[in-house]
Specification:
The complex is a heterodimer of chains A (330) and B (290). Chain A has twelve helices and 14 strands. Chain A has two domains: 219 residues, Rossmann fold (3-Layer(aba) Sandwich); 69 residues, Alpha-Beta Plaits, CATH 3.30.70.100. Chain A is an alpha/beta fold and 330 residues long. Chain B is mostly helical and 290 residues long. The two termini of chain B are 28 Å apart. In chain B, 43% of the residues are buried. Classes of the chains: A alpha/beta (330), B mainly alpha (290). Chains A and B meet through helix 2 and helix 3 of A and helix 1 and helix 6 of B.
Chain lengths: 330, 290
């Protein structure tokens, strides 16, 4: 179990983590979702004892990350964003190195290494030097190393960053197997919405150091209404389209962007006929209708007021902040 | 205790594996001292200055040549520490300590790489003693230094260096001196590597230390030939003591001075103890979490 209360971490003037509180239950797969520079890695660094919080408290597996750091280190596994397995060693040697760091006796280490290599599908490549591995294989070895000492809680920092689609899917599969077969508590950060959606039982949306929303992906999506309907009107429509739509019971919210009306609707399948009927009755002709279920992207937009992807304006800002955090961290 | 041994075995094992598995790097670190020996040792042949050509010698009366010989021998003895030494032999022994210096420096640099590649974070997230991280670096550096010094010793003998062991404990004494020097220097450079977080500033500091440590010592020239201000620097340079200890034990043969050897070893031991202690302290603080 992970409990944080009012966690704050500042680097000079930059507030990387700004009063973060959440609880992760035993055996849960919990996702920390946010853009680059949102404070995800800083939070992981605090929870894995690599950094001290400026203020606030965090308990990992019941141990305080500051006063009982040593105990926390024993029960957590960390798969960092960077590839830290050693190129000059073989996959097997990397795991034996890891075993030494966690004081696992030789015979047990061999047995565990064989197990985790099997789990990530690297048994055949174990005898080869890591420099011959592909990016995806390195990441899988990194995952195996994080699992070797059978941690109670596994931290995965951007486990699929920079990987191709197939490898990403494979990593997802390993993570879900961990959960299913080992019942491990997994805390992962990602900025891929689809990843959080399909993997995590609960997600926290973090932006600029603050948690903006927290819940199961389906609850978060449901909070936006059951469906999203995009409407385009013939001849651009007129001013009263907004009020016509607003009068329909099923419609919760309407917005207009680039000539497209975006409606949040509780039950799209039943609401759509009523909406179209109302529009037709008022003489408004609809040229195009798209109905879909909301995704976490829309949830993110809803709670942070901006899009996670293609945020051209703030990309540089986010990158700059990330570099500051990196520099302060090292 | 068992845990500490496992941690050390894992981390020192990693360093040594990386070392023997990059033959190119090993080759390059060996090439450098060999080039130094070739260029300096063979070109700056100090002893050749005192050579008198045979036709001049033939014209001199015998008592003058014998007096000249004595005078030259005493000059050489006072400069190089013993008569009958050639400069190449003299400096190639100095190179052993320089190899130790280079190797210790490269260990310091490897700390910066471990940090940059995220490996250091992986170690910090593991339940190991912070001191082990430092100690394993220093230990592997000492092993590499001494082995590489022995390799340079073999190469110098192949190139014509004439060693003259004074007693059965000569070789152990020389190795002890190199071991202690490496312990002190590695601790110094590893703690610098931990404290100076950027790779660039580390390069700058190491380059700054490299030349004075190397040249303000008796490794390449006799200290007596230096101006007095340089002599005073060289006399506090641990490399001077380590080099003299190796010369006393491997070169001077019967002319060796056991009390000087003990004094040298004592000085290097004090240096090693002080810098290991300072290094562990500094590095431990540097590895604490921000």
């Amino acid at each position: 179990m992970i409990v944080t209360e009012g966690l704050v971490k500042t680097f000079g003037k930059l507030v990387a983590v700004d009063g973060v509180s959440f609880t992760v239950n035993d055996g849960e797969l919990f996702g920390f979702l946010g853009p680059n520079g949102a404070g995800k890695t800083t939070t992981i660094n605090i929870l894995t004892t690599l950094m001290r919080p400026t203020s606030g408290r965090a308990l990992v597996g019941g141990y305080d990350v500051v006063s009982e750091a040593e105990k926390v280190r024993r029960i957590v596994g960390l798969v960092p964003q960077d590839i830290t397995v050693d190129d000059d060693l073989t996959g097997w040697e990397n795991l034996m190195l890891q075993a030494g760091l966690y004081h696992i006796p030789r015979s047990e280490a061999r047995r565990r290494a064989a197990e985790v290599l099997e789990l990530v599908g690297l048994s055949d490549a174990a005898g080869r030097r890591v420099e011959t591995y592909s990016g995806g294989m390195r990441k899988r070895l990194e995952l195996a190393a994080g699992l070797l000492h059978d941690p109670e809680i596994l931290f995965l920092d951007e486990p699929t960053l920079g990987l191709d689609v197939q490898t990403r899917a494979a990593i997802w599969e390993y993570i879900t197997r961990l959960r299913r077969e080992l019942g491990m508590t997994v805390f992962l950060t990602t900025h891929y919405m689809d990843e959080a959606d399909s993997l995590c039982e609960r997600v926290a949306i973090i932006d600029r150091g603050k948690i903006r929303a927290l819940g199961t992906p389906s609850d978060l999506k449901a909070s936006l209404g059951g469906s999203i309907i995009d409407l385009e009107i013939v001849n651009g429509g007129s001013a009263d389209v907004m009020s016509i739509l607003g009068r329909v019971d099923a419609v919760r919210r309407v917005s207009l962007a680039d000539g497209v009306y975006r409606l949040s609707v509780d039950n799209g399948e039943e609401g759509l006929p009523a909406i179209l009927e109302n529009l037709l009755r008022s003489g408004v002709r609809v040229s195009r209708v798209v109905m879909r279920k909301p995704t976490l992207d829309e949830v993110f937009l809803e709670y942070t007021g901006r899009k996670l992807r293609d945020e051209t304006g703030s990309w540089e800002e986010a990158f700059r902040q990330r570099m500051i955090v990196r520099r302060m961290r090292t | 205790m068992m845990n500490l041994l496992m941690e050390l075995q894992a981390l020192v094992g990693r360093e040594l594996r990386k070392w023997v598995r990059s033959p190119f790097l090993l080759f390059m670190t060996m090439v450098q001292p060999v080039i130094w020996m070739g260029l300096f040792g063979k070109a700056f042949n100090l002893t050749a200055i005192l050579n008198i050509s045979d036709d001049v010698l033939a014209q001199l009366p015998p008592y003058i040549t014998s007096q000249l010989g004595e005078a030259f021998n005493s000059i050489m003895a006072s400069l190089l520490g013993a008569s009958g030494l050639d400069y190449f032999t003299y400096m190639s022994v100095g190179m052993l300590s320089i190899v130790v210096l280079f190797t210790s420096m490269s260990t310091g640099m490897s700390v910066a790489w471990d940090r940059r590649l995220g490996f250091l974070n992986k170690l910090l997230a593991a339940p190991i003693k912070r001191g082990t991280i430092i100690f394993s670096k220093v230990l592997s550096s000492v092993i590499r230094s001494v082995v590489q010094a022995l390799m340079v010793m073999a190469i110098s003998i192949a190139f014509g260096a004439r060693y003259s062991l004074s007693s059965p404990i000569s070789l152990p004494a020389a190795l002890a001196s190199l071991f202690l020097l490496s312990l002190g220097l590695s601790s110094l450079f590893v703690s610098l590597g931990v404290r100076l977080k950027s790779w660039e500033s580390q390069m700058a500091v190491m380059n700054l230390l490299n030349l004075p440590l190397m040249f303000a010592s008796n490794a390449l020239y006799p200290i007596r030939m230096m101006p007095s201000w340089l002599q005073s620097i060289a006399s506090v340079n641990p490399i001077s003591y380590a080099v003299d200890a190796v010369r006393q034990s491997l070169l001077y043969g019967p002319a060796a001075d056991p009390s000087k050897l003990l004094l040298d070893l004592g000085a290097v031991a004090v240096f090693a103890a002080a810098f290991t202690a300072i290094g562990v302290l500094i590095a431990d603080r540097g590895l604490r979490r921000g």
